[in-house]
């Protein structure tokens, strides 16, 4: 029996593509002091972290993440623990990896990773933050608020939108997450959790249409 892969509804595709592109920072990857993989339900974070380590982009890799309602089933021992296991299985030396198993949000990811690096006396003037594709902009804004002096580059596992949806296996989950992360760009800046980011009119309009269509489970 053939299973049809999940697809984005045609009537929402343009809006989903708009948000997908907005959240991607389009940073050029280059060597840095440290790679930091932010915990989530997406194993792609561990995959890109492992790939960039093998490409010589950093000598030290931090995985940070406990669990959230969306990750407990996939990573019962914790996000950072499973990411570390993936990286080691795929050739990253154990000694190159540090893990934080306590962070439960992006702000804690940044703060706890920074503290862990200081504890181990690892210089971190520049970092690559690795996250879900649609978390890049929020991760960047959070890092620049909490750690303004660090030079930060954002990266994600390189998949097309359709391939990413297929890898997650749940179209609505991805669409809900995109809508939720867009809401947080304004909200978290207003709350002082992140630096302000420009949201173009077409992005706001796409966000509103998707929220009005019911993709709201990740709204605050």
TrEMBL record:
The source's superkingdom equals: Bacteria
Q: Name one Pfam family in it.
A: DUF218
Q: Where is the signal peptide?
A: none
One cellular component term (GO) for this entry is: plasma membrane
Question: Where is the chain membrane-spanning?
Answer: none
User: Which parts of the sequence belong to the DUF218 domain?
Assistant: 46-154
Q: What CDD domains does the database record attribute to this sequence?
A: YdcF-like (cd06259)
The record, for PANTHER family, names: DUF218 DOMAIN-CONTAINING PROTEIN, INNER MEMBRANE PROTEIN, PROBABLE PERMEASE
Supply the name of the protein.
DUF218 domain-containing protein
Q: Kindly list the organism's lineage.
A: Bacteria, Bacillati, Actinomycetota, Actinomycetes, Micromonosporales
């Amino acid at each position: 029996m053939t299973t049809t892969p999940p697809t984005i509804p045609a009537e929402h595709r343009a809006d989903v593509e708009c948000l997908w592109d907005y959240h991607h920072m389009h940073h050029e990857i280059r060597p840095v002091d440290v790679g930091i993989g932010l915990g989530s339900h997406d194993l792609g974070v561990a995959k890109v972290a492992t790939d960039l380590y093998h490409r010589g982009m950093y000598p030290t890799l931090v995985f940070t993440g406990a669990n959230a309602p969306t990750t407990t089933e996939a990573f019962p021992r914790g996000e950072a623990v499973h990411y570390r296991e993936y990286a080691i299985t795929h050739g990253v030396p154990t000694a190159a990896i540090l893990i934080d198993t306590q962070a439960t949000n992006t702000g804690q990811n940044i703060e706890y990773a920074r503290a862990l690096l200081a504890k181990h006396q690892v210089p971190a003037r520049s970092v690559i933050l690795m996250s879900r594709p649609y978390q890049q902009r929020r991760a960047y804004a959070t890092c620049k608020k909490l750690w303004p002096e660090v030079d930060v580059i954002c990266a994600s596992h390189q998949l097309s939108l359709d391939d990413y949806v297929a890898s997650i296996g749940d179209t609505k989950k991805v669409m809900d997450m995109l809508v939720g992360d867009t809401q947080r760009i304004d909200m978290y800046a207003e709350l002082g959790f992140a630096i302000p980011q420009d949201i173009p009119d077409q992005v706001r309009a796409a966000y509103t249409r998707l929220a009005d269509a019911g993709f709201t489970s990740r709204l605050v």
